[in-house]
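Hello forum,

I keep getting stuck at the same step: I have a sequence, I want structure tokens, and every attempt I make locally crashes halfway through. Rather than fight my setup again tonight, could one of you with a working pipeline run this one for me? It's a single chain of 340 residues.
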Amino acid sequence: MKSWHLNGSGVGLDGLSLRHRDIPKPGRGEVLVRVHATSLNYREILILKYGRYPLPVKPDAVALCDGAGEVAALGEDTRGVRVGDRVIASIFPHWMDGPFAGSSAPQLGGSLDGLLTEYAVLPEAALVPIPEHLSYEEAATLPCAAVTAWNALLGSPRSLQAGDDVLTLGSGAVSLFSLQLAKAAGARVIATTSNSQKAEQLRSLGADAVIDYRSTPEWGAEVRRLTGGVGVQHVVEVGGGSGLSQSLGAVATGGTVSLVGALGGGSSLIDAGAVFLSGAVLRPVIAGSRAQLARVVRAVSLHRLRPVIARVFAFDEAPAALAWHASSQVVGKTVIKVGA
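Reply #2:
Ran it on my machine without issues. Output:
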């Protein structure tokens, strides 16, 4: 079989090597999955280009944490799946439920081999069935971005309620899933973006209002105006950096700002006074557990949600997919199809 491996952390976007290996055999409690599709996340840019991913990345790891496939073989003591089942896996295979802890840290495409491969051995306990209405390419987008969005909106003590206002930032995968999940839960969604074309795409997904942050740099105040001065109950903050001050200005007293990324860089200082005056909870989110993945899958199934895919690459085009993903400004996920 063929697999794409990470050459190292911080070596650049061309740091993938194609290797030929024997197909592995599943052990006790494990299954062999034939991977049909995998998808890219910003974490790959952090690992390869910047070398500042916060969790361990082992040398020569098989890349990518997201993937979807079918069960090809069973190890001993596996009872919940059958050969031929369509499955996705939690990116943290040992994080079953509850809060994130040190024992939860091993992750696919990092300290564990990932899914940019033709076959992968995975713990049976980490697997979740794919929604019937989704293709393998669509299902491959769920484990990281969709679970992160779910955790941001529904993983805190003050979870999303019908009628809440939610602010999503930009048109990245987490923001798109946050928009879709929030609308499915009965919330009103205000989104920010950088141009009219993206604004139309966000409206087509259900955004109730869209703010162009280039023409409205004080967009936090505009969010306040749109909510009658109250602010939103939930902000899914993907940028960090200087934009965090606008998010703090947009959030309602007692609301939650879920920090799911730092696209704006990690060196900006947080204004403690602004945090205090906002009366908000700042909550870092690291994807989610296997239980949260199962809840996302149920929500996607019930509401017939479809992930947004921008482009699909062939398996042998993995380096080109990574470069395109890093430079593209389109809306939606970058997917790699494995096999014919």
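The domain at 147-284 is CATH 3.40.50.720 (Rossmann fold). If your local run keeps crashing, start a new thread with the error log.
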